[in-house]
Amino acid sequence: MRLLLVRHGQTPSNVDYLLDTAAPGPGLTDLGRRQAAALPQALAGEDIEALYAPTLVRTQLTAAPLAAARGLEVLVRDGLREVSAGDMEMLPGVGEAGERYMRTVFAWAAGDTDLRLPGGESGTDFLTRYDAVVAEAAASGARTVAMVSHGAAIRAWAAARAHNVDVPFAAAHRLENTGVVVLEGSPEDGWKALTWAGATVVPAGEGGPTGQALDGTA
């Protein structure tokens, strides 16, 4: 299966750099609506057969123009929602709270899935729910599936599940609003990331960039 993970369009909380993860969440800014409207053209070369989005308003608004253009139903699945910030909800996404949030998320991707965000979920919780939706899509027989999701969730899941994406790569590569990560594979055989925000993914351990650019969540 070809899997397109799409970050939602810009929200007011993105502008204010807030850890805004709870449902239903905010809508889109004017820019976010324009970003969503541009998705059908941006993905014109993809033969998308199924389209998923979680329960948050911003993801469904982002998916709507693509659904209309392709004649698809948006399949709403809570498992694709953003990593819950728990006790840090609505705190600044830059500074101490934001760094703790992202370092925890990337620790999950590195294998420490028992770690839990204060008042929030564990890595096991997150990966179990996200994996379940990806498995459902794979079992449907659709050859190309798009899932509109969230920045931290996409980066963490890709780092945990794609064999050629490691934590330093995901940490150093923010995913801007409506940025897309394209993967191929299956739950049984694993996943390979083909492109990240339009750029070819350098395999882990083969000279890919490193660093801890941890922002770009929700």
Question: Topology of this structure?
Answer:
Elements: E1 2-7, H1 12-15, H2 30-42, E2 50-53, H3 57-70, E3 74-76, H4 96-109, H5 123-139, E4 144-149, H6 151-161, H7 167-172, E5 180-186, E6 190-196, E7 199-200
Parallel strand pairs: 1-4, 2-3, 2-4
Antiparallel strand pairs: 1-5, 5-6, 6-7
Brief overview, please?
This protein is α/β, with parallel strands linked by helices and 218 residues long. It is built from seven helices and seven strands; from the N terminus they run βααβαβααβααβββ. The protein has helices at 12-15, 30-42, 57-70, 96-109, 123-139, 151-161, 167-172, and strands spanning 2-7, 50-53, 74-76, 144-149, 180-186, 190-196, 199-200.
Beta strand count: 7
Topology pattern, helix = H, strand = E: EHHEHEHHEHHEEE
Numbering strands along the chain, what is their spatial order in the largest sheet? 3-2-4-1-5-6-7
Q: Give the end-to-end Cα distance, rounded to a whole number of Å.
A: 26 Å
Organism: Streptomyces galbus
Protein name: Histidine phosphatase family protein
InterPro entries: His_Pase_superF_clade-1, His_PPase_superfam, PG/BPGM_mutase_AS, PGM_Phosphatase
Pfam family, one: His_Phos_1
Q: What do you see in this structure?
A:
By secondary structure, the protein is α/β, with parallel strands linked by helices. 36% of the residues lie in helices and 16% in strands. It contains seven helices and seven strands. The chain has helices spanning 12-15, 30-42, 57-70, 96-109, 123-139, 151-161, 167-172; strands at 2-7, 50-53, 74-76, 144-149, 180-186, 190-196, 199-200. Mean pLDDT is 93; it is low at 206-214.
